[in-house]
């Protein structure tokens, strides 16, 4: 036994076991997040339940079973719920998602299982996904065009899907027009306003310049009026149709078709139809904008903002980190100052991220951004251009946060390169700069990529500093659009990490937001893994390319 311990094998097995347990824990956590998040997109059965209260009154509830749990009878009695004649110690209660927010005070209702008289899943129950007030559950009664019925009992589903597709297409055309051509006109009008203000501040606003700017503004306004008429025409056409639904109260409700995004009959779906609907909903979640205070719709702006900010941060941190590492390892002397700088770099890695956020807000936003506004954008004041949180300051703040990781990783890579290669290059007549550029940095590129991978992994998940320097709950515009200069680094942006915080802790409807928290968390992990895999593939390619230089 002593020989076995002295051989070191127990420690090898202990390490392997710890690694295995860690991997199982991580994979189990990811599986739990994926299951809780992705199950939200699976079309759940819609139940029509008749419930009898203790006073003998009955009511009908239509919705999907959202959750179920076992509760003790004593707990219910303490909370004031009386169940006459029930003798068991525990009972099951069901949480129904009933939607129809404009007519029901709560989106969710708890129902005790003993109170259920009838529980059915009729095939003609429909779920109407709307752009406002969430889902609507009920029976499709009629489809109306300009106040006249256009559907029969046999054709009602076909007509419904056709009118929804038409309304969605018109809404998309209106949104594209508003965000595209109309947005470009508004952008140009604001540019002309700033140009007039700049000339006025410089004392160069002559009558000719005023006339030129006024003519350009009038031309833009004329184009705006034409596009506005086209926009109103789209909206009028979209509001032509409506669908009549009968809800759980037994009353008929008319829903304008321009507010309808989709209609499904989950109880009448086969397995393949459910799979197709599942992937369609995931596609919408990834590509659409959020709605209803981020509790409905998709997360595309948050995905775009996260990836754009991380890529911008990578472009900033990599050259600065590599240059600092090269100076410390190749040029700086081995003295007390160099050792002090290395200690400071290592200690920076342990500074809480919120401190970086405060530093970024005070230095970059207020000091640097405010100075830029005074020098280059005086015509926009007092409205700040760069003197306000934005995606550029967020990227720079996270670049400073992750800079120690890149420096340390690059230095480790430089230290592994044999000194004989440097001496051989210099002996053959190359300068130190040529040796560094053609031999040392290519061989150290895998280590540089390793530092970048670690920096991306940390930056993509940071939220606290971003709350101070650029991220917002809802951004009306992306940092990239078709207006010159195309990349608007002064704009605020959305972030998947902050979106998770906002939906999970700031949402007015916690139960409805819970699956979106899991879905967005899984998406954030997927984005981070995708960015890391891309960087790893580049690192492996570089490692194979320059492997021959090591021998």
TrEMBL record:
Gene: pstA
Keywords: Cell membrane, Coiled coil, Membrane, Transmembrane, Transmembrane helix, Transport
Residues that span the membrane, as ranges: 12-35, 299-328, 340-366, 386-408, 439-460, 516-538
Family: Belongs to the binding-protein-dependent transport system permease family. CysTW subfamily.
Pfam (any one): BPD_transp_1
Keyword Nucleotide-binding assigned: no
Name listed for the protein in its UniProt record: Phosphate transport system permease protein PstA
Cell compartment(s), UniProt: Cell inner membrane; Cell membrane
Lineage: Bacteria, Pseudomonadati, Pseudomonadota, Gammaproteobacteria, Alteromonadales
Coiled coil: 184-218
UniProt cross-references to PROSITE patterns, sorted A to Z: ABC_TM1 (PS50928)
Domain ABC transmembrane type-1, first and last residues per copy: 303-535
Membrane topology: Multi-pass membrane protein
Predominant location: membrane
